[in-house]
């Protein structure tokens, strides 16, 4: 369960956790090449990964549900949405244990994940205000209902708002890192020169943006009548 995962994440690295050779948080094993290719996060992490395809699929579903405010908004991709995709794929990063610190007292295990300031700055809450986001009452419970919110009104603005947003289990927190009984998962902002999560490396970002743009085009084309809409099933989107 979640508590056991947190303890595993801190194993092998001493009391502070966060060593390169530690186990991945989501899979409780070392990073490896998936036997079946990832779909949503493969462009960001094309080789070894800290997640398996079922977890990758869950990440994609949670991402799509959060941004499903309207058809018009779904048919576009903003820099903030690309940054959110990278954040949501954090659990697949083969380097995830290296910027994760685990501490345990008699009551609570705290997992702290450092997010680089450059990535955090790309997805401050006000960047999502034009469309809004759909926040479920309970992530993973389709019967619990949801609310459409303007993120800056709910979480605040700037980096303080980012911290509030990404520590909401039902909103910006990466799937699989939700709090549990006796387990707190906390995302914090760190300077880029520290050991922190940057998302896609600079060399991979153009490919990620291209994949996002093609996906956006496909969604828009599928909504159109006539031959262009009918051709949606023949469109091949890079994984």
Secondary-structure map:
Elements: H1 2-9, H2 53-66, H3 71-74, H4 79-88, E1 100-104, E2 109-116, H5 117-121, E3 133-136, E4 146-149, H6 151-155, H7 158-166, E5 183-190, H8 205-222, H9 226-230
Parallel strand pairs: 2-5
Antiparallel strand pairs: 1-2, 3-4
Description:
The protein is an alpha+beta fold. It has helices spanning 2-9, 53-66, 71-74, 79-88, 117-121, 151-155, 158-166, 205-222, 226-230; strands at 100-104, 109-116, 133-136, 146-149, 183-190. A three-stranded mixed beta sheet has the order 1-2-5. A two-stranded antiparallel ribbon has the order 3-4. The longest helix has 18 residues, at 205-222. The radius of gyration is 18 Å and the shape is globular.
Range of strand content: 5-15%
Multimerization status: single chain
Q: Main β-sheet, in a few words?
A: 3 strands, mixed
Q: What is the 3D form?
A: globular
